[in-house]
Structure formats: C-alpha cells, structure tokens
Fold this protein.
Amino acid sequence: MLATMTEEISSGEARDQILSQHAVLRRLLADVVDSADRTAASGEGFETLRERARRLYRALAAHMDLEERLLPAALRDVIGWGAMIREELEVDHARQRQIIELAISGIGPSGLCGAALIESVRSFVAMLIVDMESEERSLLQGDLDALSSDSHGG
C-alpha cells in the first residue's frame, strides 16, 4: 500500500509532505528550547525537559522513516541525480539515528543531569536545525524538478 501511495504522488507532493513534517519538527524544537531555557533559568523542570526531548527524538525518528518512504517519489524526476541525492540522505539519516540513540541515553534516568542535560538538548536542537536547513536547501527544493528538464540540455 505504501509503495503504491508513493508511486501515485508527484515528486513535488512528496517533497511538500516532507517539508510539512519539518514544520511540525520546528514547533517541537521551539518547545524543547523553551523548556531548556526555563529549566536553565529556574534550575527546575528537568523531568519536563526530558519528556519534551523524548517526544522530539521519537518524532524525528518517525519523520526519518517517512522521508525514507517518500524519497523515491520525491526524487523520481531528478534524472541522473536522484540516486546520489537519496544516498546522501540515507547516510545522513544513519548518522542522525546514531546521534538520537546517544541523545536518548543521555536523557534517561541514569543519564545527564543539570547543565550537561540542558547543553546536550540544545546541541541536539542546533544540529537538527542545521540538518533540516541543509536538506531543504539542497535536497528538497522544487528546483530539483528543473534538473529533470535540463538534464537533456533543455
């Protein structure tokens, strides 16, 4: 069913779905940063910060699964570049999954505490923002469809 779904949507629609998920992740990122800031200022709320970070990490893992399902459709029209772009994103996702595993272990009950927890969460958020912006600039632009037209000298 999923394979059929990705074959039926256009590359632009697939990219739009991925970008829509980026907007959801940005709201979660803002929530986590807000929680980290409040926790840093008050010295309280570490459990709330841990829970919000867990929610973000779970959402990111689900988002990467969605991207990997939609990627064939999102890149299908990029003749000559689609496979390379897809491979780049898969390598990036493998790296992100390792970072998520490390981050999850850091927010567990026997993980980081105090300022180290806050810094870990902030660093993760900063890394994720950079990664999403990079994807949006280089992998998920509508201009990629132009490559399919231009790839034959047109």
Observations:
- The two ends are 36 Å apart (CA to CA).
